[in-house]
Write a structure and sequence with these properties.
The complex is a heterodimer of chains A (259) and B (231).
Chain A lengths: L7 E4 L2 E4 L5 H13 L4 E4 L4 E6 L6 E5 L5 E6 L5 E11 L2 E6 L5 E6 L2 E10 L3 E6 L4 E4 L5 E8 L2 E6 L3 E8 L2 E5 L6 E6 L4 E6 L4 E7 L4 E2 L6 E5 L3 E6 L4 E7 L4 E6 L1
Chain B lengths: L2 H18 L2 H13 L1 H18 L8 H11 L19 H6 L7 H23 L1 H15 L7 H18 L5 H27 L4 H24 L2
Classes of the chains: A mainly beta (259), B mainly alpha (231).
């Protein structure tokens, strides 16, 4: 097939965009068609776009990446669909996207290589995001979220209204900006990066902040301290309704009031 | 400084490093030990051996006995095959031997020889088999440490189990991925050693207890992540 630019091929519900330039690639395409199962999709070197129909109230998404970023944007207008865009940066990694009978979408990268994801979900989607190396970004979500980076990469949450947030990066910053809901639980950790939380000045939470070697800047919230050492602060702001755990071994902790 | 050079100087470092090693070499070894769990483990093992050897009773052999032993040993060790180290003082091996006072019985000498041979074989085995070395060395320090916290032994056993599985697989990983993993593992282990040492000095410090537990959790989580990726 010659350079059929902008050419599109639909494989088992998955949209493949790109150009095929050799007989070998055509053969691979045919083999891909033969082996694709009814419930899963696999992408080679081409970008992958696929959407799943989900229930807006109970949608769930799990992404297991190897190397590469994961960006998730929640939108009120995006009701009932999870849209996944994957771009292979290098290597021969493969992306498998499936949906369970309960409706949860699972995306997993296998093989070797870098894949970047740009994903759109309904507001209340339950997220479980994982990458060995690469950034994770989540915006505007109201559902619970867990994000984990095994080695290097920053985690950034923007405009969140989630009742449960867990984030961990080994060697990157964890930045949270959003509401701390009553009875919510927020666990933000980084081994050698900083942990930075920005929340409204009326936030009501119980804080446990621990930094082994870094600075702790608690942003002028009026606090009632239960324990205060160079490495650990336990305190309550207001009635202490939400629970906030911040930890970094080598980085700094910043707690800021949203203007 | 590389592991091989550190291991070769380790005995002197543990024994009388200010006499046998230059200041630069001592600093290099100490810097390396902070970052390298494997060499740290070897140091622990050699320290144990040295402590055990110190408990042996001392006897003074005659000078004639030493002369006979020296005559036997020296021709068997070609100069070219003697271990070399970085920037040593210009004293010869034999001159340094002679400048010391020794008091051993023949059985003790025979025992020391056997021990030295065992250590050499052990060292060669370690340096020749990377996988096996990682596994053994990571296991070694935990065997020498006693639990400071309730449940610590259980956590360590679980970590060792996971680590042994991963060590068996990681040779097949992409080199960059492997380097990243080892770098992070070393960072956690270094912090864990430091926190544990601090806790050892003040076992009732609840903040340190919490930090040690958090670091164990961190280490276990790193291993769980890698297992999750099915590499």
């Amino acid at each position: 097939m010659s350079n059929a630019s902008n050419g599109k091929a639909v494989v088992n519900g998955m949209l493949l965009k790109g150009s095929l330039s050799s007989l070998r690639q055509v053969s691979a395409m045919v083999l891909g068609l033969l082996f694709a199962s009814a419930s899963s999709s696999t992408a080679g070197a081409q970008p992958l776009s696929k959407s799943f129909t989900v229930s807006p109230e109970s949608s769930g998404l799990e992404v297991i990446n190897q190397i590469g970023s994961i960006k998730v944007t929640a939108s009120g207008s995006n009701t009932g669909k999870i849209m996944i865009n994957a771009r292979q940066v290098d290597g021969d990694a493969r992306v498998n996207a499936t949906q369970t009978q309960e409706g949860k979408v699972k995306v997993e990268v296998t093989g070797r290589g870098t894949v970047d994801f740009d994903i759109y979900v309904p507001l209340s989607t339950r997220l479980d995001l994982f990458t060995y190396k690469g950034a994770i970004t989540v915006a505007n979500l109201t559902g619970p979220v867990r994000a984990r980076i095994t080695t290097d990469g920053n985690i950034q949450f923007t405009g969140l209204r989630s009742s449960r947030v867990e984030a961990h990066s080994s060697s990157g910053n964890v930045v949270f900006s959003g509401e701390l809901l009553p009875d919510g639980e927020y666990r933000l950790k980084s081994f050698s990066g900083s942990v930075d939380v920005t929340c409204p000045s009326h936030a009501d939470f119980k804080l446990s902040a621990s930094s082994f070697t870094g600075v702790m800047d608690l942003g002028g919230f009026p606090m009632k301290f239960d324990r205060q050492t160079n490495q650990l602060v336990e305190a309550a702001v207001g009635a202490g309704r939400a629970k906030v755990f911040l930890w970094t071994q080598e980085g700094s902790i910043h707690l800021r009031r949203k203007p | 400084m590389e592991c091989r050079a550190v291991v070769s100087s380790m005995s002197d470092y543990i024994d009388k490093h200010e006499m046998w090693l230059s200041d630069i070499e001592v600093r290099e070894i100490e810097t390396h030990l902070i970052a390298c769990s494997k060499c740290q483990s070897i140091k622990l093992e050699l320290t144990e051996v040295r402590t055990a050897a110190r408990e042996l009773p001392l006897h003074t052999p005659s000078r004639a006995l030493w002369a006979r032993i020296a005559k036997e040993i020296e021709p068997e060790v070609p100069r070219s095959e003697r271990p070399t180290r970085v920037e040593r003082p210009a004293l010869s091996w034999w001159a340094r031997m002679k400048s010391r006072q020794f008091s051993f019985t023949l059985p003790q000498l025979a025992g020391a020889g056997a021990l030295a041979a065992a250590l050499i074989v052990f060292g060669l085995f370690r340096t020749s088999n990377q996988d096996q070395r990682d596994f053994n060395i990571i296991k070694a320090p935990t065997a020498l440490q006693t639990a400071l916290l309730p449940g610590e032994d259980t956590i360590k056993a679980e970590i060792e189990r996971r680590l042994s599985v991963i060590n068996g697989r990681k040779m097949n990983w992409d080199p960059q991925v492997r380097d990243d993993f080892e770098r992070h593992l070393n960072k956690i282990e270094e912090s864990l050693r430091y926190s544990r040492q601090t806790l050892q000095n003040n076992p009732d410090d609840r903040v340190q207890q919490q930090m040690v537990l958090t670091l164990y959790h961190e280490k276990r989580q790193l291993l769980e992540d890698v297992e999750r990726l099915k590499w």
